[in-house]
Amino acid sequence: MAARLNSNVKKGEAILDLTKYINKGVHVRFFGGRAVSGVLKGFDHLVNLVLDGATEYLRDAEEPYRMSGDTRPLGLLVCRGTSISLLGPQDGFQAIDNPFPSPSSDTSSGTESSPGSTGTWDQMLRGLEDTRLPREAEEIGHVCTRR
Q1: CATH number at residue 8
Q2: Which end of the chain has fewer surrounding CB within 10 Å, N or C?
């Protein structure tokens, strides 16, 4: 039964074909919130990555879910595939407004880019800073939340 479901993927074959991103800039987000960018030099069938010239985007010490805007150079980096939550190219991202605004969010400050405008990776990371669910979803109880 399992062989029939996975007949398209051969044993030892990569889950994702990342060859089009070799020697191009990519951004990687890890479970736990860490984020890095660098040039993809290689990968294997488990999606372990090798990044060259990697830079880590640091988080705020008081607010662990907020990016501080500071960076730290890491150089050559090996990323374990099981800890990667998001992988994307450096170019081609588009920043959008949060579709789930929370009542506690400050709307008076405005956003750095309007919907439909081309944004940077930093703007996208700022959009992912607060991953909490809207209060209504937590009250309904249909959604599991992190504690």
Answers
A1: 2.30.30.100
A2: C
- DSSP classification of residue 116: T
Instruction: Identify which of 11, 9, 19, 12 has the alpha carbon closest to the alpha carbon of residue 42.
Output: 19
Domain of residue 42: give its range.
Answer: 2-97+111-140
Number of domains in the chain: 1
Domain membership of residue 90 (yes or no) is: yes
Q: pLDDT by residue (tens digit) across 10-60? A: 666 667 789 999 999 999 999 988 999 999 999 998 899 999 999 999 988
For the stretch 95-114, pLDDT in tens is: 788 888 777 655 444 444 44
Tell me whether residue 106 is in a domain. Answer: no
Question: Nearest-CA neighbor of 29 among 86, 82, 90, 76?
Answer: 86
Contact criterion met (CB below 8 Å) for 134 and 142: no
Question: How much is the pTM?
Answer: 0.57
- From residue 56, how far is each of 33, 38, 126 by CA, in Å? 11, 9, 14
Q: Would 147 be classed as within a structural domain?
A: no
Q: Considering only CA atoms, which of 90, 114, 120, 88 is closest in space to residue 18?
A: 88
